[in-house]
Specification:
Helix content: 40-55%
Order of helices and strands: EEEEHH
Strand content: 25-35%
Largest sheet: 4 strands, antiparallel
Radius of gyration: 17 Å
Number of helices: 2
Strand order of the largest sheet: 1-2-3-4
Structural class: alpha+beta
Length: 110
């Protein structure tokens, strides 16, 4: 089985461990292009052979992630998605979004 663990560190860093490899990912908004993000992936392993054996797996996972993000972006831009609407069962998501905003920018002005 393939094991994975993921940790997001505010504001733009994530750490993930898949199949014994550490992946450090950084996310940067592209200036003047709000619908684009630059993502840098760094992969580390205990030894070169382990890294080489798992390289194809990581490339496949990364390609799947990029495809998912591409289609998510297309869906959001379609005009059918209502931005900011949260379903009642998404209280955790709403709390996280408010917490993140306050952490990054302080209390919103009224």
């Amino acid at each position: 089985p393939i094991f994975g663990a993921w940790l997001f560190v505010l504001p733009n860093l994530s750490l993930s461990i898949y199949n014994g490899l550490l992946s450090i990912n950084t996310y940067f908004p592209v200036p003047e292009e709000p619908d684009r993000t630059l993502i840098l992936w760094y992969h580390y392993a205990n030894d070169d052979e382990h890294c080489r054996r798992n390289s194809e797996f990581h490339q496949r996972v990364s390609a799947e992630d990029l495809d998912a993000l591409k289609y998510l972006s297309i869906g959001v831009q379609s005009g059918l998605h209502e931005r900011g609407s949260l379903l009642p069962e998404e209280e955790g998501t709403h709390w996280f979004q408010q917490w993140w905003y306050k952490t990054m920018f302080g209390e919103p002005s009224k």
